[in-house]
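SAMPLE LOG
Freezer: B-3
Tube label: C17
Construct: single chain, 88 aa
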Amino acid sequence: MEFTRVINPVEDMEIWIASSDSFSFVISCESRSGPGFHGPPGYVASWRPIHQNRGAIRVSGSPFKTLTEAEEACWVMLGYLRSSLSEE
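STRUCTURE (predicted):
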């Protein structure tokens, strides 16, 4: 799974996306003020099933201090989701 930065019209808005095994992951950078998403400062990671019309679920531990920490948390979540699917 490789995260790619989304190019968008708001210059300072930071969003990364990735997908694997029928799951979509998004990481966004939030701050208390300025352009982009507002919230506690840091990198917020979320996931959702690709083929279901459901809202995103925040990855536990968000917001993270660094993008790397958020990416690692997404990998851990993907491992959990994979193991849950194999148990069904």
